[in-house]
Amino acid sequence: MSRSIINDSIIFEEQDGIVAVEAEFFFKQTLAELRQWYITSKNGAPKIGRDDDAQHCYDASNNAYLEILPDERVTHDDQLIHGENFTNEPGKIGVLSYKVKFNTPGRYYVWVRAFSTGGEDNGIHVGLNGTWPEHGQRMQWCQGKNQWTWESKQRTKEIHCGVPHEIYLDIPNAGIHDIQFSMREDGFEFDKFILTKDIDYVPIEKGPKVIVTHGVLPEPFPEVKVPSYFKTICGTSVETRCIAAQDFHIDGTNFYKNGKNWLAINPKKYEDAKTSTVFNFESGTYDVVFVGVGENDGKSTFTISINNEKIGSYSPELTQRLFEEGKKFNALWKNVSIQKGDTITVISKIGSDGVEWTRGRWAGIVFTPVGKGESIQNASSTYYQN
């Protein structure tokens, strides 16, 4: 769907120097002959020419996002056609418009939440009231590939990955203004934008709430239910056995249940935690996969034992997100002998980046036939917000 789902009677409002708007809440789209912005949600996805990547609505704000299609330049080897699949001139192709009421004029730094899968779908332009100032041009993403990522950098000839604090709009006076975005590269996926007067502001997760001063927004798109990474790899084989973290005993362990799938530690109360459970599956030799959770404020440490005999310790890698599941945050021990009735023990210790503390989050332990421990971890790399 490329038509607007709202009209120009709906106006978003800046309050206390910040305003947030969902990308799909544009009131009009112009210059759409060569490329158009289409909405992807659980309700449906566009099939417009070439579009090599999968849907990404599972973690999009409001469960929907825009993509400018067709996506004809996916890799650097694909032909670059100026004025068609790429334009360094803002306001020429695929212009989106949003009405925003500003209570306070001044300089607003622009943040956009985007999903980039390569090097040819990571740029967009931003404008104001039909003008395209220099500091709204060439917004650029380099980090945070294959996940929704907030960015506010301007690409320059010298620094291709962008200079921070150089994407901004100067709002001349209080009142209603048109905020606009236009294509730089086709295939760009656009979830939400924020304008803030605070140069040091950095959005987290899906960003602040959208505030409307006039009109009523449509109902939210239906939430997309995505199984956790742990549950996904547990279902890859009938021979695989799993013990979820929340199936472990927690009374008096210093752990608490974090969401629906994880155990974690409250760093304000404890530095470590210890829990055990009984292995009630068939005796044998297994590859053992411990499914940890990467965090952005340090590396927790996990130690796993069988009958008080340590099989290994490890620390999940850091992530740019608050937390994330996936293969790179796991540990694998091969050819581990386990008997039915053995006691499995997990000890977790929090870590720190020197400012904040981790919570020692983990999802569970997977026991799979010898030789399959590596392959089952590739079954899914889906990020899951617990």
Q: Explain this structure to me?
A:
Helix content is 3%, strand content 39%. It has two helices and 28 strands. The strands form seven sheets. Strands 1, 3, 6, 8, 9, 14 and 16 form a seven-stranded mixed beta sheet that branches. Strands 2, 4, 5, 7, 10, 13 and 15 form a seven-stranded antiparallel beta sheet that branches. Strands 17-28-21-26 form a four-stranded antiparallel beta sheet. A hairpin with a 2-residue loop joins strand 23 (301-306) and strand 24 (309-314). The two termini are 30 Å apart.
By DSSP, the count of extended strands is 28
Mean residue pLDDT: 91
The helix/strand class is: mainly beta
Specify the helix fraction band.
Answer: under 10%
Instruction: Report the biggest beta sheet as strand number plus sense, adding barrel if it closes.
Output: 7 strands, mixed
Number of helical segments with 4 or more residues: 2
Beta-strand content? 35-45%
Give the CA-CA distance, first to last residue.
30 Å
Q: Which stretches are poorly predicted, pLDDT < 50 over at least 5 residues?
A: 381-385
Order of helices and strands: EEEEEEEEEEEEEEEEHEEEEEEEEEEEEH
Morphology: elongated
Alpha-carbon Rg, integer:
24 Å
